[in-house]
Amino acid sequence: MGLSARTLNEEEFFYGHKACAGCGGSLAVRIALKVLGERSVAVLPAGCMSAVGFNFPQLCFGNNAIISTFAGTASMLTGVEAGLRAQGIDNFHAVGFAGDGGTADIGIQALSGAIDRNDDIIYICYDNEAYMNTGIQKSSLTPFGAKTTTTPAGSNIRGNLRPKKNMFEIVAAHGIPYAATASIGYLNDFMRKVEKASKIKGTKYIHILAPCPTGWGTATDETVEIAKEVVECGLWYLAEYENGGFTLNYRPKEFTDVAAYLKKQSRFKHLTEEDIQTVRYSRDAKWEAIYRNFKII
Amino acid sequence: MKPFLRKEIPAALSELPDATAYEAGYLVTKNAGWRNVRPVIELDKCTGCLQCYLHCPDGVIFKDKGKVAVDYDFCKGCGICKKICKYAAIRMEAEK
Amino acid sequence: MGKCFLSGNEAFAYGICLARPQVISAYPITPQTIVVEKLSELVEDGSLKAEFIHVESEHSALSCAIGASAVGARTFTATSSQGLLYMAECLTYASGGRFPIVMMNANRSTALPWNIYGDQRDSLSQLDCGWIQAYAENAQESLDLALMSYYVAEHREVSAPFMANLDGFVLTHTYEVVEVPAKEQADSFLPPFVTENKMDFGHPRNLAFSAGPEHNTAFKYKEHIGLLNAKKVIAEAEEKFARIFGRQYTGLIESYRTEDADYILITLGSIAGLVKEKVDKLRAEGKRVGLIRLRYIRPFPNEELAGALKNAKAIAVLEKDVSFGNEGTVFTNVNSALHKAGISIASSNYIGGLGGKNISEADIEKIFEELKEEKTTIQFLGLGGAEKWVYPQGL
């Protein structure tokens, strides 16, 4: 039987932090640590989760945890893992929690290096689709159309014009032992993936979509719901990569309305019907590729 | 180990660590003041399904006698628990 | 192993091997490569039991070392020039976190223009980043520094990272006869690394945290005191080293024929060898000249310099560095030591050896010749007499 709310470790490891109310990223970190347990060494780069969890003397991780440089999540994980192993210590998880910017922009080189070496680490990217800690600037995981403080929506440019980088497939292209996508709207799926990753040797990568009410412009109580809806409308998907192949874990029977998903968030308020049609087209193209290349459960 | 509130707040030079390393889970402030509304569990409706406990970003909902209870020291009042509850067993009350 | 014919890089690698680091992370850059190649060989043949991590950049090399140090492992990395600058963010991270990582830096010019040869602008540009900085003169000292570096860095009262600098090519690639100590001797010198500044499953800790305005000064003060404490720990290490290995070093500075010297040249690194020869020749002619070699520049030997220079009539600082728009960085530091000690003598600055430019015996002769004028000047060596700018005349 898979992990569920009933069987999950009751201990809390990420507690008393100063994340915004309704923060999706903190939920991802909290749940992952509950799955991985007390013998986790958490590495968090400069970013939301380190900013809200490590303000001396308010230290919010109950397990061993350290802030890395912004670019250095994966390389520090490598050092932690090698350092413990070199001392004959085993039975632990070196786990990183980096945001979208820390992963897909400034940290991608170190992440690629760690995967190349197949270091025995778990790297979790909590993707809230912009540099939220510094005040909502565009990252390479900001989706098409989103308004951020560096991609303002005006009469000339309507927010971010580039699509989201596909980190899941970039990581898979390394031939990584295990990679997965997840959403905080589907925590049972996420818990299963974290648990699975914890049992695989080598580098593991989990990319979890984690809405940010502050940056997305949603109410604090809508975080989980919007994280479900993004999957239901087909703009995000739950999948795994292992043994060289992709598997789709969940197929919505029928996509819900993309426009409804977008219009709930103030970052997309300015989009025209034409823009929304662009989003639909790119979604459909992605799903065609998924049907072609992924094993569908 | 769950981080918990401490009585001692290191302040003097001699009390501060020599390096940027300190006891894990050392809390000195609460988050209660952030809250405009508070979740109240209606125990007669609560089935103990634990979805609120699972989805709380702050981990402040805990199992209690087959149902759940809230650590109001650290609840920020986001309301995710109320929204996730299929049994309408959580209501949000304004903080006075 | 006894006596071996080794380059500076190889000698340093053997010294590191004797110190038994548990994690080595490095990225190749000329002229550092041989030290990490040698260590790879020593890991491969079983002489050294360490995790050798092939990182994808210098930033990752040091970030990885910090991670390993943060779980209590003894760590080593090596770099040079652009690599040192690329990892600069991690330099203050390592020192601020009080992680006693040892790094060898092969001193090399920094771009632009591109140049792979030796000067000291790379390490001297990072003087303020909280690392102990030592400069070796020869291959034997390189090996010995490698071993002593861990003793100093890991000492409880120091807890600071250690950068050992070897002049690129001139020292890193030049072969000399080097005494390589036995493992047992090295083990009796260097205790295992023990620290509480680590993540530990028995005592979970949160590391590398933020500290706001209220506490930040205290952490920085403690870091400063740690670096100052290195002075007495270096002396302690050298005393123990001499007892075990029979080679006595001289602390933060080496004074060569300075006791009654009127004119003293101050420099650092491998050029000191040539200066010593010149001092001997000038002494033979009856000239009262001497040399001070700065073995360490952080912590800075303020008192030691004041003591050694108090009877001099004039001094010159010869360095392979310039802080553009001012003067050589070492010169600035030396003048500060003189000023604090109330020593008012002429001091001159010679900026030479940039990008590997040879500093000749004639250059050193010129310096000692000009010292007799007891004036303060700042000038570049190596422009072939074409220099327009000489302080204090200006352009």
Automatic annotation (TrEMBL), chain A:
Domain of life: Bacteria
Listed GO MF terms: oxidoreductase activity; thiamine pyrophosphate binding
Gene3D superfamilies: 3.40.50.970
InterPro entries: PorB-like, THDP-binding, TPP_enzyme_TPP-bd
Pfam families in UniProt: TPP_enzyme_C (PF02775)
Entry keyword set: Oxidoreductase, Pyruvate
The Thiamine pyrophosphate enzyme TPP-binding domain, residue ranges: 47-208
PANTHER family, A to Z: 2-OXOACID OXIDOREDUCTASE (FERREDOXIN) (PTHR42897:SF1), PYRUVATE SYNTHASE SUBUNIT PORB (PTHR42897)
Protein name: Pyruvate ferredoxin oxidoreductase beta subunit
From TrEMBL, chain B:
InterPro entries according to UniProt: 4Fe4S_Fe-S-bd, 4Fe4S_Fe_S_CS, PorD_KorD
All residue ranges annotated as the 4Fe-4S ferredoxin-type domain in the record: 37-65, 66-95
Keyword Iron-sulfur in record: yes
SUPFAM superfamilies named among the record's database cross-references: 4Fe-4S ferredoxins
GO molecular function: 4 iron, 4 sulfur cluster binding; metal ion binding; oxidoreductase activity, acting on the aldehyde or oxo group of donors, iron-sulfur protein as acceptor
Classification via PROSITE patterns: 4FE4S_FER_1 (PS00198), 4FE4S_FER_2 (PS51379)
Keyword check for Amino-acid biosynthesis: no
Cofactor: [4Fe-4S] cluster
Keywords: 4Fe-4S, Iron, Iron-sulfur, Metal-binding, Pyruvate, Repeat
Protein name: Pyruvate ferredoxin oxidoreductase delta subunit/pyruvate ferredoxin oxidoreductase gamma subunit
Species this protein is from: Ruminiclostridium sufflavum DSM 19573
From TrEMBL, chain C:
GO annotation (BP), single: carboxylic acid metabolic process
Endpoints of the signal sequence: none
Family statement: Belongs to the pyruvate:ferredoxin/flavodoxin oxidoreductase family.
GO molecular function annotation: oxidoreductase activity, acting on the aldehyde or oxo group of donors
InterPro entries: PFOR_II, Pyruvate:ferred/Flavod_OxRd, Pyrv_Fd/Flavodoxin_OxRdtase_N, THDP-binding, Transketo_C/PFOR_II
Protein name: Pyruvate ferredoxin oxidoreductase alpha subunit
Keywords of the record: Oxidoreductase, Pyruvate
Pfam families, A to Z: PFOR_II, POR_N
Domain Pyruvate:ferredoxin oxidoreductase core: 261-364
Keyword Hydrolase: no
Protein source organism: Ruminiclostridium sufflavum DSM 19573
Domain of life: Bacteria
Domain Pyruvate flavodoxin/ferredoxin oxidoreductase pyrimidine binding: residue ranges: 16-238
